[in-house]
Amino acid sequence: MFETILDEEERGQVGIGTLIVFIAMVLVAAIAAGVLINTAGFLQTQAEATGEESTSQVSDRLQIVSTSGDVDSNQNIENVSFIVATSPGSGAIDLNQTTVEFVGEQGQDRFEVDYSEVGEGIVGTDGGVLTDNSDRAELKFQLTTPNVTSGFNEYNSQPLAEDETVTVTFTTSSGASTVKEIRVPTTITSDDSSVRL
User: Which of 10, 66, 178, 179 has the fewest CB atoms within 10 Å, measured from its CB?
Assistant: First the structure.
C-alpha cells in the first residue's frame, strides 16, 4: 500500500519542491497585495481631490447682496453696482480671478474683474479677496460703447433704458457660478439719481 523510499536523496527533493511552490505562492500573494494597496491609496487620493473640487464648485461662489444703478441725464442706467459677499460655507474668493458675463438685448460681453481699479472694500475686504461671510465688496460696471476707457469694468453696450433686462453671471476661479438678472424699472424720473435693480 505505501511505497517505501529507500533512497534518502529522493525524499529531500520532494520536500524542496514543495517549499519552492509554497514560497512562489507567498511571493505572488505579496505582490498582488502590494498592487492592491497602491491602487487603493491612489483611488483614495483621487477621490479626496475630486470631493474637494466638487465641494468648491458648489459652495465657493459669490452671493449678490444688492444691486443698484446710476441714472444719467437721459434717464438711462449708465453704471451698475453690485455689493457681493461669499455664500455660506464658501472658502476665500479672489475677485481678481472672477469672470463676469453680461447677456442682454444689446449683446453679450465676458471679461475678468479688475478689482484693483474699481473695487471698493465695504467691510473686511483685503486686496480684493473675500475671506469671511461678513466681508463685503462693491463691484461697479460702467455701461459704455466699445474702446472707451474709464476706470471701471466696462460692459460694451449702450446705457440701459427703462424696462431693459440684463443677465449677469459671476464665475469664481473654482468654477462656481452666480446668476443675477437685473431689470431696469419701467419708469425713471429726472429726480432719480440711482435706482435699485
Answer: 10
